[in-house]
């Protein structure tokens, strides 16, 4: 009996990484629902307590889902805090490249949603400071929940840290080159 390789058959390609559509849905769902509720809660209910509790519960569900499920499935990252007798310690974990299979679109979606939701809550804090919204405490909690997840996953991801470092280096190089060109052109104009 001949083997497939002997018959000239192509080797079977590796199966593609599984798509995590349910995780993608819930990664966005709780973020969107918390943000929408924050902006329409006064239309739905006049009770500050009800609006506050609903928004905080939605933010907590988003935090828990992102930290415990979607981060692991969508980008292969995990972080947690361990408390012991001597204090507490942050732990960061990245699955090795051979073990994790991350789809680029899921990775982009994960990071985009994290950045956009954190940016929204920062903007909501600024707006609340100017008195447009009376729910500044909710906005602060949104920044804390989303910001801690963003920080935790950023610390886990060596790739994200390398991307940020590359961006900082290229921006600083561009600024330095621009300053040097400006000084040279000023010196040349005096001659």
UniProtKB/TrEMBL annotation:
Q: Which Pfam families does UniProt cross-reference here? A: DUF846
One CC-aspect GO term: Golgi membrane
Q: What is its main location?
A: Golgi
Which topology term describes how it sits in the membrane?
Answer: Multi-pass membrane protein
InterPro entries tied to this protein: TVP23-like
Membrane spanning stretches: 22-41, 48-65, 121-145
Q: Does the keyword Isomerase apply?
A: no
Q: Could you provide one GO biological process annotation from this protein's UniProt record? A: vesicle-mediated transport
What does this gene product do?
A: Golgi membrane protein involved in vesicular trafficking.
Q: Which PANTHER family match?
A: GOLGI APPARATUS MEMBRANE PROTEIN TVP23
Q: Which family does it belong to?
A: Belongs to the TVP23 family.
Q: What is this protein called?
A: Golgi apparatus membrane protein TVP23
Query: Where does this protein come from, organism-wise?
Result: Volvox reticuliferus
